[in-house]
Structure formats: C-alpha cells, structure tokens
Amino acid sequence: MATIKARPFDFTLNPAETALIVIDMQRDFVEPGGFGATLGNDVSLLQAIIPATAQLIAGFRKAGLPVIHTRECHAADLSDCPPAKRERGNPALRIGDPGPMGRILIAGEDGADIVPELYPVAGETVIDKPGKGAFYATPLGEILKEKGIRQLVFAGVTTEVCVQTTMREANDRGYECLLATDATESYFPDFKKAAIDMMTAQGAIVGWAATVDQIVEALD
Ligand code: C5J
User: Fold this and answer.
1) How far does residue 28's CA lie from ligand 1's centre (Å)?
2) Which of 117, 108, 20 has the alpha carbon at shortest distance from 71?
3) What are residue 153's DSSP bridge partners?
C-alpha cells in the first residue's frame, strides 16, 4: 500500500489491485488530419501530454501492473456508429469518410491506431470502443473482474469527454478512480480544469487526481 497526497484527499494505492487505463491516445485525436482536427480543434495541445503519459505507462510496466489501452473507433460498415453520432455538427470530415490517415475513426485504419510513442506492448489489453465510455459495449468490465482489479488510474484524452465518461462509468461500478492530471488533456483547457474540479469535488464524488510523478513514486 502507498499513500498519494491526491486531490481532494489522500488516495491509498494498492498496487496488487490496480490497473492503468490509457484512453484514446489515437492518431485521430492527436495528429493533424484526424477526427479531432476535422472538428476544428488544435491537436497540438493533446500532443503535449505524450511524454508524461509515456512516463506513467513505463512506471506501470516496470511495476508489472496491467496497462489497458482504449481506442474510440467503429466497424468499417458503421454498424456500431449511431447515425446521431455520425451526422452531428458540421465537421470537415465525418466518421467513416476517407482522410489523410485512412477512414476517420474506423478500426484498422492508421488514424484509429495509438500514437507510436505510447504503442501497446505484447500482453497489454487494447479495447476498441464505439462510445465515449470504455465500459459501454466492450468486455472491459469482465477483463477487470478477471484480473481482480479494484483501483483504476486514468490517463488520455479528452479529459471531459472519454476520460470523464469512463471514470464515471467505473465509479458507478465500484472502482476507485485516480486521474493523472498531467497525462490527460482537452482541446479546451478550461474544460479540463472544470472536469477535474467536478470529479474531485464533494469528497471525490467521481475520483481523485494526482500527478504522474506522485503516482509513479507510489508504484516503486
Ligand atoms: C472525443 C474522446 N472527444 N476520446 N473523444 O470525441 O474524448
């Protein structure tokens, strides 16, 4: 057991029951020409967290703890993409349209894959998810149960969309959730701050927050 001086109060980390979930660090969100950029976002903001996220992943790998990666993507025939999701807004390219990194947010295309710096190694679980939350329509819950996991450390993008949705799903399922504040980012810095404030408020109503250095130190 290790105590992390987290927000809003100490988080007692039990490494034997802990996994890292890295949410959607995909080229489609982080690199020019992908889904994030087609929505008009500045993707360079998200690129900035790659080194801290790599440090966090390295800490989990060194400690021999599970690292789980997620990818938001859809089947090639779009059978798992609700029309309401594809048709929303006025993006330059919609989900499934051909872009510079292949079809936007389609499984198996270059853009839907994880950025090379954070690429999964053999034995790590990769969850393809059609929704914002990683528990919806995926085997994540069963995988965590099988591994005896009770605590989840979160990293990835974007803080207020897929990270927050998954943390809320996990919290409702009884997991203790800790967000790595410098290994998560939003296209909107104010939204990142608000999401962390909301989740840690009211006595960690959704979860705790701490830095990558604090978390990695607790794993040693
Ligand atoms: C979004 C995500 N923002 N991974 N996806 O559409 O947060």
Assistant:
1) 10
2) 108
3) 20, 178
**Which of 69, 161, 179, 192 to mutate to test ligand 1, by most ligand atoms within 8 A of the CB atom?**
161
Q: What is the pLDDT of residues 119-151, one digit of tens each?
A: 999 999 999 999 999 999 999 999 999 999 999
pLDDT tens, position by position, 3-24: 999 999 999 999 999 999 999 9
In this structure, are strands 208-210 and 98-99 parallel, antiparallel, or unpaired?
Answer: unpaired
- Atom of ligand 1 at shortest range from CA of 35: 6
The Cα–Cα gap between 205 and 199 comes to: 6
Name, in order, each residue with C-beta under 8 angstroms of 144's C-beta and a sequence gap of 6 or more: 19, 152, 175
10 Cβ neighbours under 8 A, 6+ residues apart: 3, 4
Q: How confident is the model at residue 219 (pLDDT cuts 50, 70, 90)?
A: very high
Phi-psi category of residue 78: left, alpha or beta, with phi > 0 → left and psi -120 to 50 → alpha: left
Q: What is the atom index within ligand 1 of the atom nearest the CA of 187?
A: 3
Distance (Å, whole) CA 69 – CA 71: 7
The residue annotated as part of the active site, out of 28, 73, 132, 162, is 162
Both tokens assigned to 1? 């057991």
pTM score, whole prediction: 0.98
